[in-house]
Please model this.
Amino acid sequence: MARFRGEQYHHGEGERLGILLTNLGTPDAPTPSALRRYLGEFLWDRRVVEIPRAVWWLILHGIILRTRPKKSAAAYAGVWGDEGSPLLAHGRRQAKALETELNQRLPGPVSVSLAMRYGQPSIQAGLEELHAAGARRILVLPLYPQYASATTGSTFDKVTEVLRQWRWVPEVRFVHQYHDDPGYIAALASSIREHWAEHGRPRRLLMSFHGIPERGRDAGDPYFCHCHKTGRLLAEALELGSEEWQVAFQSRFGKAKWIEPYTDATLTAWGREGLEHADVVCPGFPADCLETLEEIGEENREYFEEAGGGQYHYIPALNDRADHIQALAALATRHVAGWPEAERAPDPEAAESSRRRALELGAAD
Ligand SMILES: C=CC1=C(C)c2cc3[nH]c(cc4nc(cc5[nH]c(cc1n2)c(C)c5CCC(=O)O)C(CCC(=O)O)=C4C)c(C)c3C=C
Ligand SMILES: [Fe+2]
Ligand SMILES: [Fe+2]
Model:
């Protein structure tokens, strides 16, 4: 509260549309201590692990945070680039490109800030950045095409937790999902067709999505259905026959049963069959990250090849492809309809002619 004193508000001035582009988060460095901090925050979220707190605290602090940080740090080290975590580097490029695109499409002005649900830059920092830029209307756009309680739901929790501390809450809208958005599906289909033009068409395309515990799906989380609908629309856009594609779920965590089929088991089975060429695409990850580059690009490639499979290609995420940014800009534009920064400024000529017309009509009466 103390951060926002009266003099920081500029009544009527600096009106600006703010877009908070969010993703899951990533550690600050590929080291065990940074991973312990990051995983400690992430895995303590009740929407991510739904086990009673006392029991989970003992497991998390007694076992997981003693072993996983070292293993995860080694995996992150393998994908870490000059710009740091791939998820963060792609996120920064996406935010910049989206800001440029939206300022061309809308009267604006528009500011886009990138924020992570866990770690840095935080959702609090992103919201404060937008506020400092003069944004009084904010669209929250989580980069999760498919809604899940653990991701989209949790982002909503954090945004509202931060805004609870503000005296003057901005006008806020929230994108809930865009799993069947035509622009998103078309960008995925184009990226796959381009890959095929260069590397040849595979016998089968695996569409691998991050999993969730089966319990969540059975309790009503729409995530599983959203993933399947994305998969069906993408297969239709690519005109694939039913034997040529499949949906599967990756990145299992913990001992509970997760939604099936599992990506690793599917690719192992395809390898055993002697499938000569498999491609994997991850439509639920709009930016490449550990789970795509390492888990799909490396780990699952080994499962497939060691089981006897032939060619294997991971098709990169949409990242900052122009068609992806245009799809996100179109999505954002639809969600801010009616806000002043999204409406064309009145054209003085049109306003004058409509005033004359009104006068004429009035005179005719
Ligand atoms: C795309 C949607 C995602 C869902 C749904 C999701 C659920 C979920 N994830 C975990 C556990 C972990 N996820 C981790 C990384 C990670 N997860 C997502 C996305 C979804 N997670 C992304 C984009 C990333 C990558 C971040 C990066 O920095 O590259 C990790 C950390 C890495 C590791 O140690 O393996 C864990 C752990 C659970 C329990 C869960 C529950 C529904
Ligand atoms: Fe995850
Ligand atoms: Fe391929």
